[in-house]
Design a protein that fits this description.
Largest sheet: 6 strands, mixed
CATH superfamily of the largest domain: Creatinase/methionine aminopeptidase superfamily
CATH topology of the largest domain: Creatine Amidinohydrolase
Number of domains: 3
Distance between the termini: 52 Å
Mean pLDDT: 95
Strand content: 15-25%
Strand order of the largest sheet: 4-3-2-1-5-6
Helix content: 25-40%
Low-confidence stretches: none
Structural class: alpha+beta
CATH class of the largest domain: Alpha Beta
């Protein structure tokens, strides 16, 4: 029934395209700030396709409609697109054209591509402009064709911002602004236009609630050598925040006035911006008036390196969260086969346990609980209406995290509920071994995540398998669970950001195995980059582990592990018991002792 609606909506969209002289229409997955997760107001692609994954772009042509998404969502997209007539284009697979390659092939001279320039990033918009221009094709970026079709579209989210206590930030807003201005001077920029939401929250030491699980507020910043303008929806501004802005000489402006402000501003120097995060519409507005300097947002690198106050708070928050997840695993093991459970009720149990924790603010993302073959879909999400019953057999993958006043957490454990196959054990051991080999890396300063990815991925590659995603991403501080510029992935992608791993950066470590129709396995810890020994060969670096939760012993088999891997697992479990046992009941403690016994 839902997919019949999609067919009807696409027909209405094509009518509007024809009325507006548009031959192809592009619908990305983004808000005005190129955020990873977006509010319901911005889920236009989902409205017209039924695909609910967090990454994907829909191209609607005169006859064909295509959806591009990455390997995390291939299985999910196949299911959700069924019956819509939309073709799935599996990104980064052999023979699959990129969006631009597809448009270059399909569009003719004189054709027009339409899109809403507010939800397309500048880099992509400029590439479209260049490539299609070479074909004699045109773009129109000022149209949101969902208007008039999506009649019950949710309004823009707007919630009051809250100011973080300065004693948990480690730096004042004033100190952060001065560091940003130093970076502006280095780039010979007189102005800095910032639209990345988590960077804005970090800069002003505030948080919001405009995006589910991401504590951010819809906003823009415009920093000059002496002034700072902050654009925020009126309903988000409290009296306390007005006084805060006066204290730090922040000039408050209405969120919806950003385009008008940038059009009318008198520029006397170059504007620093990040083309990966600024939307194409705003870029086009400013580039007509001023010289532009494209560089990574200085706030991104500054934010990624956590100060000692932030790190100490993160350690405390992770310990609290580790105890909760350990208790959840115990509860699940005790109740499986005795109490009716499904993926959704298991996820809700873990969520309820987190909500009772000290300093809890929100989940850091919707809890993923995938049983058996559902776990092969990396970002599968069970619902109250659509879930799989849990039985005392197979494995349940649970990926979850929390936002706390003091940190953001992310952890995955694959939990054995009963009998599993030898193949599953072999896959489980490869994932555990890879995760711990990366954990125990010792490397020279200057390494990026691309230098280290093989340590985690190696045991999986040895089985002639791969997982179609990166091994790790940065984690925010009371902010987005996915944060850059640091990451751990093997593949070089032109134009993709890459940076050296700096002391104070936090990264996840999450190798996996995903077998369609059978099972999915992921084991995820979070690591902190630290300096090690410095000698004539350079500055060595290593990781400090923040995650201490048992790796299911029922799936660990010596015959699938090297002696070194066994030692790493035993050492890790010894530390899990030492740290977590003091916070457990006697019954839980006995269980954990057995779970962490040497193998």
């Amino acid at each position: 029934m839902e997919n019949e609606k999609i067919v009807e909506r696409l027909a209405l969209l094509r009518d509007k395209m024809q009325q507006n002289g548009i031959d192809f229409y592009m619908i990305p997955t983004a808000d005005f700030h190129n955020s990873e997760y977006v509010d319901k107001h911005f889920k236009v692609r989902e409205f017209f396709s039924n695909f609910s994954g967090s990454n994907g772009t829909l191209i609607v042509g005169k006859k064909e409609t295509g959806l591009w998404t990455d390997g995390r969502y291939f299985i999910q997209a196949e299911n959700e697109l069924r019956g819509t007539g939309i073709s799935l284009f599996r990104m980064n697979e052999d023979g699959v054209p990129t969006i631009i390659e597809y448009l270059e092939t399909e569009m003719q001279a004189g054709d027009t591509l339409g899109f809403d320039g507010r939800v397309a990033d500048c880099n992509f918009g400029k590439k479209l402009e260049e490539k299609l221009g070479q074909k004699g094709a045109f773009i129109k970026y000022g149209m949101d064709l969902a208007e008039g079709i999506w009649v019950d579209r949710p309004t823009l989210p707007c919630h009051e911002v809250f100011i973080l206590p300065e004693d948990i930030c480690g730096q004042t807003c004033e100190e952060k602004l001065e560091k940003v201005r130093e970076k502006m001077r280095e780039k010979n920029a007189s102005y800095f236009l910032l639209s990345k939401l988590d960077d804005l929250m970090w800069l002003f030491n505030i948080r919001g609630m405009d995006v589910t699980c991401n504590p951010v507020a819809l906003s823009y910043g415009f920093v000059t050598r002496k002034e700072c303008f902050f654009f925020l929806q009126q309903g988000a501004v409290t009296e306390a925040f007005r006084q805060y802005c006066e204290k730090y000489n922040i000039i408050l402006k209405d969120y919806h006035e950003i385009t008008k402000f940038l059009k009318e501003y008198s520029y006397e120097g170059a504007v620093l911006y990040d083309a990966a995060h600024l939307n194409y519409a705003l870029y086009s507005t400013v580039s007509e008036k001023a010289q532009m300097i494209n560089a990574a947002n200085p706030t991104e690198a500054l934010k990624a390196v956590k100060n000692e106050v932030e790190l100490q708070n993160m350690r405390e928050v992770f310990l609290r969260d580790n105890v909760i997840v350990t208790k959840f695993i115990y509860w699940l093991k005790k109740n499986i086969g005795k109490t009716p459970l499904n993926e959704y009720t298991a996820a809700m149990k873990l969520d309820s346990m987190r909500r009772q924790a000290e300093g809890f603010l929100d989940l850091s993302f919707e809890t993923i609980a995938g049983y058996k073959e559902n776990a092969a879909m990396m970002h599968y999400e069970a619902t109250k209406e659509n879930n799989k019953q849990l039985e005392p057999e197979g494995m349940l993958l649970v990926d979850s995290g929390g936002q706390y006043l003091g940190g953001t957490t992310d952890i995955t454990r694959t939990i054995v509920l009963g009998e599993i196959s030898e193949e599953m054990k072999q896959h489980f051991c490869a994932v555990a071994a890879g995760m711990l080999r990366l954990t125990n890396a010792n490397f020279l300063y200057g390494c990026t995540g691309r230098n280290l990815d093989i340590l985690a991925r190696g045991p999986v590659w040895e089985l002639n398998m791969d997982y179609k995603c990166g091994t790790g991403h940065g984690v925010g501080y009371i902010l987005n669970v996915h944060e850059g510029p640091q990451n751990i992935r093997w593949k070089f992608v032109e134009g993709q950001k890459e940076c050296a791993l700096e002391e104070g950066m936090i990264v996840t470590n999450e190798p996996g195995v995903y077998r369609e129709g059978s099972h999915g396995i992921r084991t995820e810890n979070v690591l902190l980059v630290r300096k090690g020994e410095k000698n004539g060969d350079g500055q060595f670096m290593h990781f400090e582990t923040l995650t201490f939760v048992p790796i299911d012993r029922a799936a660990l088999d010596q015959k699938y592990l090297t002696k070194t891997d066994i030692k790493l697992i035993n050492n890790y479990h010894k530390e899990v018991y030492r740290r977590i046992a003091p916070y457990l009941t006697e019954e839980e403690k006995e269980w954990l002792k057995a779970e962490t016994m040497p193998i």
